[in-house]
Amino acid sequence: MMEKILLSSPHMSGNELKYINEAFSTNWIAPLGPNVDQFEKSLAAYAGVKGASVTSSGTAAIHLALDILNVTKGDLVFCSTFTFVASAEPIDYLGADVTFIDSEPDTWNMSPKALERALVDAKKENRLPKAIIVVNLYGQSAKMDELLAVSNEYGVPIVEDAAESLGSEFKGRKSGTLGKIGIYSFNGNKIITTSGGGALVCDDEAILERSRFLATQARDHAKHYQHSVIGYNYRMSNILAGIGRAQLEVLDDRVSKRREIFERYVNELSALEGLTFMPELEGTLSNRWLTTLTMDFKKFNMTPLELINKMEEANIETRHLWKPLHLQPVYKNVRFYKHNEATEAVCDQLFATGICLPSGSNMTWQEQERVIDTLKKAFSEKKANVSVPVL
Length: 391
Ligand SMILES: *Cc1c(COP(=O)(O)O)cnc(C)c1O
Fold this sequence. Notes:
Elements lengths: L15 H10 L8 H14 L3 E5 L2 H11 L7 E5 L8 H5 L3 E5 L10 H13 L6 E5 L8 H10 L4 E4 L7 E2 L2 E2 L6 E5 L12 E5 L2 H11 L22 H12 L1 H19 L5 E3 L6 E2 L5 E5 L1 H4 L3 H10 L5 E2 L15 E2 L8 H8 E4 L7 H21 L6
Parallel strand pairs: 2-3, 2-4, 3-14, 4-5, 5-8
Antiparallel strand pairs: 1-9, 6-7, 6-11, 8-9, 10-12, 12-15, 13-15
Helix pairs in contact: 1-8, 2-8, 3-7, 5-6
The structure holds pyridoxal-5'-phosphate.
The site of pyridoxal-5'-phosphate (PLP) has 14 residues, from α3.
């Protein structure tokens, strides 16, 4: 059996151990310390914001962001539906209700049109959301200009879920820095990783301070342990922050590498009928965290599941696109706004036809060749098997 090719696996630079060793030699084996401080500084400098508050996960960072925006029991929060469940789960942690918003075709991310309709209704019902969680999927920036314009009109802050888009840019600004608060993830499969971790980034010092306070069990300033509000244990360990420091140093290389991988897929596979790669919005740069594409069944003759199974036989991991959250059993009966009321939801169509290809920055040239050859072979075999109607 050929060695397994994974979708996206951790890619260390070699410098991680230097910072981990520093933590050991100074005995900073704690959820605070010099690596945490330096990682926060470097991340903020990279993103071009006032500061960062690093956390135990991206999910934790979203939870903190919503708490800081005073989301509480009975409140309403809007969220992209085409995403990983972690984008929305913290809404439930806080006892708030979610309304899901469809994607639009140019970016696959939140539809400004659907958002506007949802806000119009919410206003009529006298129940505006406390926050809007906009996700930048697979590295692609959402239409932030339009989304910010609508949300500002109603005075609702945007939390940018940039878990998958660290290193991407929107009109020269780093993804995750356009909303009121941005969040990143350093989970093992993301473009850089600390094995597990996340960050909240922001230009507002008070929010950053609040994030660190809440993430450290909300201890008041007192000699004894005193607590006036409920907090969390969400800070990142000084050892993991050491990994993060080294990973951040190579982030731009990782972005270039993933973009090269994307380009090669496009060059090699575009000739196959019925494949469409995820677009890149004008004025933005995607980190191409995962190469994703849709398959037109009428031309490609294969469903995503058939292709996933074919690739699996060759020990290659591919995956469906995210199953929209409004289709998830756990979110049945949740309100959902479509991009276009009269037609099928954009993200439903993407889910039904889309697939992610292996895109790790540590994938070798030969490994990518294996992916390409296996996919081409699956396509030509399928073509050959399609019975030609007898006239
Ligand atoms: C990975 C991811 C998260 C959650 O990050 P964790 O660090 O795994 O908690 C949130 N949103 C999106 C879109 C993600 O892909």
